[in-house]
Amino acid sequence: MKTRGTALALTSFAALAAAVAFVGCSSKSTNIADGDGGLVATDGGAPETGVGAGTVDAGSGDWSCIGSVVPGTPTGTTATIGVHLIEPVQGKAVAGIAVRACPDLSDVTCASAGDGGIVTTDSNGDAKVVVPLGTKGFAGYFEASLMNDVTNLTVVYPPLLGDSSPYQRVQWSSTGLSVIFSTADGFASDSTKYGIIGFEAHDCAHKIVDGVSAELVGSAPSAHLGYINTAASKLDDMQMATDKSGQGGWANVPPGPVTVRFKVAATGKLITEMTVPVRIGAFTGLVPAPSP
Question: Is the pLDDT of residue 78 over 60?
Fold first, then answer.
């Protein structure tokens, strides 16, 4: 199935990109992790608050914590994480989505989760997932799937260290993704052979940030990188870094564990490098931010 070219009524693609993001995370509370920590800057800065906690940073970003970020400490052996799923066009809750926690990012099929641990979102789009914390926190991914549609793999970063209040996450469908890819000429996504990676870059101040460049580590000739161009309301493969949306992604990524690297475009300084799961026909979402 090709996802490019399907029409869908929207106020504008810019509104879609700005409101729900390509990665599609937004906080339902001022701190989605309610103090779960994750990473702490040794200069005394506030702890990272996790996926979806960013606000728009129209400047060049705060990178003062690079080189001084250290892991936090888990509060126990397990944690209960609240998840709230919405669809990307009208922001309505999505019920009946099977969600489970996958503790190993290199485990593309989530085999390490076993047969248990699957919960289903209720009529309000809510579910609670119990995750193992180990000695370093939960640094895996959440799998959210609906029969006969796109499976979403949400990479957790920074690691979760304790119970989390609900955070909002867009459940991308084939229809929603077609809107993104229909805005860019020649940016077709072949879901019969490849997967998709979408990201939203954050800086040390936990803000969505412009000026971040992305690359895949290793050879992947089929992969096609683009960044959200908010002004032009499209996914732009001629753009060299994130704009104020902080968003971008790759189409046609070969399946398997894939290593991605993010840098400050102006200086080339490394922000983070991470290995993420990619499946055929699935959408992998991540929020890169400075790492230890």
Answer: yes
